[in-house]
User: Which sequence fits this backbone?
């Protein structure tokens, strides 16, 4: 049911910020308060309220909170590694093995299930089963993800991805050696005609560009940095497979693995992300450590080679 209420400002609340006042009096989150202001659902003396404005004794504030339809996503108390959070965004260090959003075969246990439990408000632009999701990582790829808490942040972040102004770096352990110390793979990626569940380098596929740089070589293996300039499904994994250097542990794109390593999924990790904050424009950059399972492989390779 939609909720409407009128709030009267007394002397004790004089000169307070409207978003803080409404959040406390209406018992809703600051993020939801901001969203209601952006959508014109909070008025101050019958005029559309402005976020952060100061109120004074005698002001009348009207708040309308639309009914929030139950989207059927179970809220689950799943631990999340939150690297950064403010009123607009979260930056999450996703663990390997976690699916980002519910889908066929993955109705729960996803990042979205965890977000629904821990975060009051998420953007709705991505759809009812993908609240807050601006971009994704594969189930068995770990690392940094940006989550949008409101539609304005979601739109601006989406535009940044489209204009390639968000910088991402991944690390991977791959089979073999790439030619040289750094380079670019510029090959189109599309659905694999032999297996529609997988991707491949195909004629007529979407433009896909990956820059790479070798960090270290260990005999028949290499530790590399990968810098995707486009965001195609499975792009990094497909590009590396196509040039003959698949990611260690990749269950879909590598048939070269041995019993030398014990890792669940591909040794691929989104280690760094940099972008301008969607509201303030401030430059943000986050980097997380190499996860333990990949570090164990590196340590083992260093002991052998």
Assistant:
């Amino acid at each position: 049911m939609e909720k409407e209420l009128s709030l009267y400002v007394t002397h004790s609340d004089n000169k307070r910020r409207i978003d803080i006042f409404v959040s406390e009096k209406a018992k809703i989150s600051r993020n939801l308060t901001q969203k209601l202001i952006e959508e014109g659902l909070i008025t101050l003396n019958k005029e559309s309220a402005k976020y952060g404005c100061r109120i004074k004794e005698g002001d009348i504030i009207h708040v309308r909170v639309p009914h929030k339809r139950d989207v059927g996503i179970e809220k689950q108390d799943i631990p999340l590694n939150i690297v950064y959070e403010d009123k607009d965004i979260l930056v999450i260090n996703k663990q390997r093995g976690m699916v980002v959003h519910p889908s066929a075969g993955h109705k729960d246990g996803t990042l979205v299930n965890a977000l629904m439990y821990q975060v009051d408000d998420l953007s709705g632009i991505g759809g009812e089963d993908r609240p807050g999701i601006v971009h994704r990582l594969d189930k068995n790829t770990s690392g940094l993800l940006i989550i949008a808490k409101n539609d304005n942040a979601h739109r601006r972040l989406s535009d940044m991805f489209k204009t390639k102004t968000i910088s991402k770096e991944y690390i991977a352990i791959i089979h073999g050696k790439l030619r040289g110390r750094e380079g670019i793979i510029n090959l189109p990626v599309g659905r694999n005609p032999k297996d529609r569940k997988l991707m491949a380098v195909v004629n007529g596929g979407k433009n896909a560009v990956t820059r790479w740089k070798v960090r270290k070589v260990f005999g028949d293996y290499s530790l590399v940095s990968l810098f995707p300039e486009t965001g195609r499904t499975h792009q990094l994994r497909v590009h590396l497979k196509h040039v003959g250097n698949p990611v260690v542990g990749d269950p879909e794109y590598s048939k070269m693995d041995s019993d030398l390593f014990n890792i669940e999924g591909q040794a691929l990790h989104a280690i760094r992300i940099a972008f301008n904050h969607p509201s303030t424009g401030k430059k943000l950059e986050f980097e997380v450590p190499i996860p333990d399972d990949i570090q164990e492989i590196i340590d083992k390779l260093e002991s052998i080679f």
